[in-house]
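Lab notebook, bench 4. Still working through the backlog of constructs that have no structural model yet. Next entry is a single chain of 126 residues. Request: give me the structure tokens for it.
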Amino acid sequence: MASADNPDNRLQQLGSFIRDQRTGAELSLRKLADLTGVSNPYLSQIERGMRRPSAEILQQIAKALSISAETMYIQAGLLDEDAEREQQSAPVEAAIAADPDLTDDQRRTLLHIYRSFTVEADDDAT
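Model written out:
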């Protein structure tokens, strides 16, 4: 059985995550390429787990998909999955981003509201 920590498996998981988020947002690969400024073939290779995108490319993809860059970095293994805030917010943000019943504007608004609440909660805790 292959380990999730294996770099090849991590790339496959990242590619699947990006593809799932893109299809959940009802975006074609070409449209995501336009939104990110990344070439269509390069995005395709990322989704198939054949290329390791830079943090900058991940940030561009996250922005286009209306998810946090932190969520994308966690999926790529660039941030610690055990970090409390990212661990708690990543599933919520991913669910919002993947909800097919929401428009892009609704997704952005919900994510903005959710993030503002979590920042307030963090501020109240300190």
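Notes after review: The chain has one domain: 7-125. Helices lie at 7-24, 29-36, 40-47, 55-64, 69-76, 84-98, 104-125. Flag for follow-up if needed.
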